[in-house]
Amino acid sequence: MLETNRPPRNKGFYVRMKLLHSMRNNRNPEKNFCYRFFKIIIWFSILLYFFSSFLITRHKPTISRTTIVQSKPSRALFQEPSINFSALKNSHGPFNGMKIYVYDLPPKFNSEWLSNERCSSHLFAAEVAIHRALMNSDVRTFDPSQADFFFVPVYVSCNFSKVNGFPAIGHARSLMASAIQHISSQLPFWNRSLGSDHVFVASHDFGSCFHTMEDMAMAEGVPEFLRNSIILQTFGVKHKHPCQDVENVVVPPYVSPESIRTTLEASPLTGNRDIFAFFRGKMEVHPKNVSGRYYSKRVRTAILRKYGNDRRFYLRRHRFAGYQSEIARSNFCLCPLGWAPWSPRLVESVALGCVPVIIADGIRLPFSSAVPWAEISLTVAEDDVDKLGEILAHVAATNLTTIQRNLWDPDVRKALLYYDRMLEGDATWQAMEALSGKLDRSHKKSSVYSQ
Ligand SMILES: *[C@@H]1O[C@H](CO)[C@@H](O)[C@H](O)[C@H]1NC(C)=O
Ligand SMILES: *[C@@H]1O[C@H](CO)[C@@H](O)[C@H](O)[C@H]1NC(C)=O
Ligand SMILES: *[C@@H]1O[C@H](CO)[C@@H](O)[C@H](O)[C@H]1NC(C)=O
Ligand SMILES: *[C@@H]1O[C@H](CO)[C@@H](O)[C@H](O)[C@H]1NC(C)=O
Ligand SMILES: *[C@@H]1O[C@H](CO)[C@@H](O)[C@H](O)[C@H]1NC(C)=O
């Protein structure tokens, strides 16, 4: 549960105050009886009102995201939708009956890295989160002969540099290669399909290229040994790019659902948002030429130059542990590209109800079938950042509340968060949903059909 339930008490309180007030002015016992009777009737109607509104919200769990235009935040905002068991228990079971075998690899490939707590909580931790959720899920099968897909749990993003604390992924390719060496020598399934029904997570900047710098990533491309497989990766662009030259699903970066819950407890979605536009993160005043490329293609520098002294913009360059509470206070949250187009800000903004302003040309966003990005975010071209002020002011004066209501749909928030136990509609669930669209790769399914 992300949200605490907040029963709308105010009305009942108001009525009770009025009743108490009139009863105090009334000494006549007969009239007093009338008031009691009246009070019971009032309470009964209030209960009936809430019960029926509860039924109505329950019976319409999929209020279209585009048409939420009530004048008050609805109860649905504060409730996680219940699981639709009839959808799960259709003739094939969930995900068309898809089953996944999770390889049990030696600890050096995964669990050993968890001795560092950051391994399961930093922005690249989707590799850990998806593995965890699969281990406890009904999609998992312990019998590889029954599996459609084979999940290879290798954590490559947890070798934190002793110098700057960033994940060093120089070892990633060789770690992956030795994992494949291990599974292909132990069991027949890799060799059977040459990896085409095997699933990996690549959750750092340039996904399956395993490099932090784009030019190096592009030059090396997806390692040969992974090219037949399916990669769940945070990197995605709409144009052709060597780092997505492989069957892939774009997944969101990891943001701890626990941290979101804690932040929302302190500052609820519909609370006061006193910051107009927010960004905290690396913004170089004088961007460096790193082998021909500039951080954020100099977009962040342009934002800082133009809006650094604009009072509507709350721009900060330094790290601050409490930044989530700033997002929760903001109307617009800028999500400009860094080295890679994606950033954890996308997820944090959505989860904390701040309209993401996506500034990353050509970015491919995660789970577009579940998350109506066009209705919950704004996209500003990299070349247009010097018009941000006008663009945002125009939206604030016209459709900001519409976008916010769309954004505050709990289903949207859930689709971008990974829970330890997979929930219907959460990020792991969406990834599985996407995988189930690739069942034509399943050896099991194709042997069933060919019989
Ligand atoms: C539950 O799922 C089934 C099958 O997908 C669907 O027909 C039905 O409308 C859903 N029920 C609700 C309440 O959403
Ligand atoms: C972790 O990264 C460092 C620096 O890149 C490298 O020297 C080391 O071998 C890596 N550790 C493992 C276990 O791969
Ligand atoms: C898979 O193929 C490799 C390379 O051809 C071979 O060394 C290995 O023994 C094979 N694995 C199995 C389980 O037969
Ligand atoms: C950036 O550096 C590259 C070489 O690393 C050089 O070819 C290029 O001209 C530089 N660009 C600018 C604008 O200085
Ligand atoms: C809000 O307005 C902006 C600018 O006019 C437009 O680009 C955007 O699509 C609108 N969004 C919604 C959800 O109506």
Describe what is shown at a glance.
With 451 residues, the protein is an alpha/beta fold. It has helices at 10-24, 29-59, 85-88, 126-135, 172-186, 189-193, 214-220, 257-266, 299-307, 323-328, 344-351, 373-376, 388-397, 400-407, 410-415, 427-436, 443-450, and strands at residues 100-102, 140-141, 149-151, 198-202, 230-233, 247-250, 275-280, 289-290, 293-294, 313-316, 330-336, 355-359, 378-379. The strands form 3 sheets. The protein has a 6-stranded parallel sheet. It has a 5-stranded parallel sheet with strand order 10-7-11-12-13.
Walk me through the structure.
By secondary structure, the protein is of the alpha/beta class. It has 17 helices and 13 strands. Strands 2-1-3-4-5-6 form a six-stranded parallel beta sheet. Mean pLDDT is 85; it is low at 1-29 and 56-80. The structure holds 2-acetamido-2-deoxy-beta-D-glucopyranose (5 copies). Residues 159, 168, 170-171 line the site of one 2-acetamido-2-deoxy-beta-D-glucopyranose.
Spell out which ligands are present: 2-acetamido-2-deoxy-beta-D-glucopyranose
Q: What's the quaternary structure here?
A: single chain
**Apparent shape:** globular
Radius of gyration: 26 Å
Structural class: alpha/beta
End-to-end Cα distance: 45 Å
Taking pLDDT < 50 over at least 5 consecutive residues as the criterion, the unreliable ranges are: 1-29, 56-80
Order of helices and strands: HHHEHEEHHEHEEHEEEHEHEHEHEHHHHH
